[in-house]
Amino acid sequence: MTLFKTLGLFGLTAVAEIVGCYLPYLWLREGKSAWLLVPAALSLALFAWLLSLHPTAAGRVYAAYGGVYIGVAIIWLWLVDDIRPSGWDLLGSGVALLGMAIIMFAPRPS
Length: 110
Hints:
This protein is mainly alpha-helical. Helices cover 76% and strands 0% of the residues. The protein contains 4 helices and no strands. The protein is flat and about 50 Å long.
């Protein structure tokens, strides 16, 4: 899988997971409608399906996905929660993304 395809798929996967968790948060913490649980469940099902599309071992995908999730969560913090990430947030995301890149793109015997 190419670099951009892998990163794009991980990005979509992270958004699906975050939406699937954010909607119940709105219901539980912000008093929004319980009907938000329906799209939340669909989003989490989409998240699981997207993770299955990677052609490598599941454990490796899950480990690498965590790095992308952290980066997308920091972007969510900024765009949805309207909180500007600190330098430490950005540094931590960079370290996590570096870890993802090492896990996913390291040379492996065929």
